Amino acid sequence: MHIDRSATWRVELTCQHVETLVGHSPRYVEPTVQCTECAVIRGVVKAVRIDDQAKDGDDCSDIEGLQSDYQRLTDEQWSWIKHIVHTEDGPRRGRPRTDIRTIVDAALYKTRTGIPWRELPAEFGSWQTAVRRHNQLIASSQWDEITRTLAKRDLPQ
């Protein structure tokens, strides 16, 4: 007797489009999928098994657990690292900067999920701003200090 190991999934992508994947693993959906509407590879936000062989508790992909594993920094966690990040005081000209805490959260989310920067969820603001500010943190060695501090406190990164 042959057991079919393929499954059908409905996946919600970071571009807000929904795709149906046929003939994929019954337990796992890749973290990125080609969006047919955008013709670009996009990050998977949520994957739900929709075929008739899905069993109770077997209808969500591991990708959903991976992304839900990430928790934004709590106020306590932020207090451990906020002194590391030097923010300019005083008035600035032009558009206000994105909050540095949001940038740190975005970089930690990207690290945890493994998605490309351009697939960063909108809740973190512009991905271009996030990658630029993250690169500035790396260049100034602040990112190393942030990750060391969080690692000392046994936080998942």
From TrEMBL:
InterPro entries: IS402-like_dom (IPR025161), Transposase_6_like (IPR052909). It holds the Pfam family DUF4096. Residues 73-146 form the Insertion element IS402-like domain. This is Transposase.
